[in-house]
Amino acid sequence: MREYYDTEWGSPVRTEQGLFERLSLEAFQSGLSWATILRKREAFRAAFHGFDVDAVAAFGDADVERLLQDAGIVRNRAKIVATIGNARATAALRPEGGLPALIWSHRPEVPLRPRTVDEVPTSTPESVALAAALRARGFRFVGPTTMFALMEATGVVDTRLVGSHRRGTD
Q: Is 0.85 surpassed by the pTM of this model?
């Protein structure tokens, strides 16, 4: 966990594949600990073809059944089906500029400047708007809290405490 937070969490992710992976993992994390998802990350990558959007978008019923048998991942039918649907929705966004453009368009104009952990929100007006924009385009498991976690993890917002050695380093 520490290595993830020190080297990856909060660093800007601007590629379709990178954002689709993080969106998918955040959806699978819903109701579980992030440590569980990180331990299974490589298995998720293998099961979902490296989170290649086009490959996942082409998954069918046989793939859903295969994934439900994969003990290396979280075997939740709703989340698996949502991930496949989210891949299709991601591909459909390409004519509009793509998933990166949509997610990054919700970056707050005024950066958050938390001084204590209690000042770090669990959602913001921007994460509420992002969740609504994604749902309107057919995405699932994209609630405001989950989208805020995505925004933090991918560098869209920086919630490191003022004075942190990593604040603003990306």
A: yes
